[in-house]
Structures
1.
Amino acid sequence: MKALAVLCMTDLLHVILPVFLSLMVTLYIYYFNESRVIPKICRQNFLHSNPQNNVAQVECRPKCEHGQFSLPGMDSCRPWLTCDEIESEIKIGEEIGRGVVKQVNLAQWMNQKVAISRLTDEKYIADFQHGLKMLTAFQTNERFTQLIGFCDTSIVTEFHQFKSADNLENVLNLKRVAHYNKVSTRFQLCMDYVDILAFLHKSPIGTRVMCDSNDIDKTLSQFLLTSDLRLVVNDLDALPEAKPGSGVKCGGRQLFGDFVAPEQLWPYDDREFDDDSMPGYDEKIDVWRIPDVCARFLGSRNGSESLQFHLHRIHRTCKNIVARKRPSSLHIRDEYERVQRYLSLNKDKEL
Ligand SMILES: Nc1ncnc2c1ncn2[C@@H]1O[C@H](COP(=O)(O)OP(=O)(O)O)[C@@H](O)[C@H]1O
Ligand SMILES: [Mg+2]
């Protein structure tokens, strides 16, 4: 009798234990999935705000791992589009921009607006591929345009309706955006710009210099404005690495003017320009340009003069003729934050 009871117990254990364990595993998986908060990236859309209180609509998308993308309205990330998917799922629309290397068109993917950049001429293939390599490398940083997919000579990216930063005044003049035409919005663009440079100057793949920046409009055309008027860097086709002891040269042509740093100018008055004899330079050429770019973002509204006054000291140091005496972009970023705190600039307060 006792032996029978022991036998029943062991049989019961053989049946009940696995059932109990699998129940626990199912419950755990269910609970884990339900309670796991998927990190999201949210952005206001200044074009779509409630007219009563001027509060902008918020658009969110899941935060993705490297190699994946998401767009507003998607509940999970997807791997970057492949050549086949780009070929079959992307419908190309009107041209929205063009530079020397890329022609950019609005496109549609699954009812979502995206941008497709295509190589203009085979002779620029090296620049195109370099830009793609850099964009791929820096994807986890939110201040870089989001990559959606690529194939040979096409790159699909997130579309930004306000386009590039050279278009800022037109955007701020739009009736629906005019409410955000504040010094705080403008100064945030200076902060974003310096933030991007600080990242590039200490990037995981070395000190990167933003070469394609020989005049102010060209510089601003490499950055896009998001729907909440923040800056993302988009064109990384000319991002050479400045290694200690060996400088970079931005293109093989002679440069002129005072937007470029003095060390980028041909130094010998008595000799014709010759690129081989041109000395190299480093990331401090980007620092030289910061005051001009920030002044352009700030514009000449009431309040921006007072801010410019507070920035004067740090901006003067950026213009040191001796490159190594200029501050680092990280230092400028800290100084901007200090000024922002001091003036307690925030989105709701007008200067
Ligand atoms: N994702 C995008 N959304 C909106 N406009 C874009 C986008 N990508 C590029 N553009 C527009 O196209 C222009 C040219 O793109 P860019 O990548 O700078 O080309 P290039 O390498 O030839 O200079 C940009 O200055 C911008 O106005
Ligand atoms: Mg460009």
2.
Amino acid sequence: MEFESSNWIKDGVYFYPHLFGGIMITCALLSFSTSYFGKISVPTMPYLFPDLRVFHKNKSANKRVRVYMDGCFDLMHYGHANALRQAKALGDELVVGVVSDEEIISNKGPPVLSMQERLALVSGLKWVDEVIPNAPYEITEDFMNRLFKEHKIDYIIHGDDPCLLPDGTDAYALAKKVGRYKQIKRTEGVSSTDIVGRILSCMKDAKSEKLFSEPSGEVDNLNNTRSSKSLVNGGHISHFLPTSRRIVQFSNGKGPGPNSRVVYIDGAFDLFHAGHVEILKSAKQLGDFLLVGIYADHTVSELRGINFPLMNLHERSLSVLACRYVDEVIIGAPWEVTKDMITTFNISLVVHGTIAEKNPLSIGKSDPYAVPKNMGIFQMIESPKDITTTSIARRIIANHEIYLKRNAKKEASEKKYYAEKKYVLAD
Ligand SMILES: *[C@@H]1O[C@H](CO)[C@@H](O)[C@H](O)[C@H]1NC(C)=O
Ligand SMILES: *[C@@H]1O[C@H](CO)[C@@H](O)[C@H](O)[C@H]1NC(C)=O
Ligand SMILES: *[C@@H]1O[C@H](CO)[C@@H](O)[C@H](O)[C@H]1NC(C)=O
């Protein structure tokens, strides 16, 4: 800021191109001479480079590339997160349009999550710089011009699936024509349709219907035996193939700095929702480094019944890692916080939200926070939102007829996609 308004940078702008050219020549000469004459020390270079870097940095600071991507982001999952991560990589600032409830209702039927909840989820992603609420479902020429003029967008980003307007024309034709359109690859393995399918297929099981009913406090309800189909994904075949590369792409890649205060929070983080974002934000504010323990699949099943978790451990880990308040995750954390964990990760504080998913099968188990409580490093924190995985699943069940119909149609087209898909080098 200061540099921009001072004369120094103005002079610099005119002056540096010469210097830049000069350095280029010097470099060429030096590299030639060093290779030619062998060991020649180059004392002048190091102090020239820092100046050069300042110039480059500020040149790019003047023109930050702003990219735009939109979506419904209903039942936010790591596929959405990955699309936005790729979009961000195409620019410096990512602006995300979140489609309004009304537009979703008239185009696809009722959304599971409200505008507020969807905004909270999208804003919580570490790659998102700005959000535009109530974006149109179909990108009109009018809205596109607003993006370019008002929001100073340089490029509109969209997935590689064709997006057609009702009249059959390409929705992004204008952006393409003016060279301000960029495309990203679809993230394989997950879709909102798939997640709704997992919840609905749980419901088919008469016993598990009770799982989503109002909590009765009866443990008997959940004492169902493990059926032959894999229920980690509600009997659905997951196309998700976890890779180490994806985890790395989502990670911050940094440990806690010296003297940082490490805060630990754990849970299933199933069907990552706005309530999770809020509690992670509150937890992060109590320290410098937020470590999140994500229960293993078998731990969640033991606590909540065989239909849970709805999302498997790797899927849940990616959703949590995508959150801007999270620094690190433990993939498959134990139910009990042990002394060894506290020492290993130098945990200063263990927190737990006041509103948390009921763990009906945990009755009779020992207090998972006994150790941190004894050490005086345990704290309950107020959950800002009264929302749980079960409450979201219940919304889907309440509207299951609409969702079943919608899903049947979409599942057919997704099946076709997987049958016909070919290898693509995706990022
Ligand atoms: C570049 O300019 C920005 C203002 O646009 C300023 O905040 C920043 O400190 C400058 N960076 C360097 C390295 O001079
Ligand atoms: C759960 O089921 C097992 C075997 O089906 C049975 O032996 C046990 O008593 C049941 N427990 C409860 C609490 O109903
Ligand atoms: C452990 O955490 C405390 C803060 O609670 C910090 O002062 C200390 O430096 C940390 N230890 C190491 C080795 O980083």
